[in-house]
Amino acid sequence: MSQVEQSAIDSAMAKIIDPELGRPITDLKLIDRLSVTGGSVDLEFHLTAPFCPPMFALKIASDIKAGLMSVPGVTSAKVTLRGHYLADAVNKQVNKPLPTQP
To answer: Which of 15, 28, 59, 91 has its CA 20 to 30 A from that of 69?
Structure first.
């Protein structure tokens, strides 16, 4: 199994755009913590406002998860939104297991 490259994660996260501001989440410094253990990535982030519209909060979280999973070597990703009034619901939705194939 290949090692996950930090530069690949950084590149993937730079492609995630805040839909309200039209700027990358990396430019806005929205990522609070990132850890990589083997192929598992754990990322915590916040939004520009605690009452950001829920559809944007879920979009950004989903885009982050998809971006992380697109990085070579990443086998799992946990995305955690902090400081948003619906953080628990967003986190539950974005991190729910994929259905298993029969």
So the answer is: 28
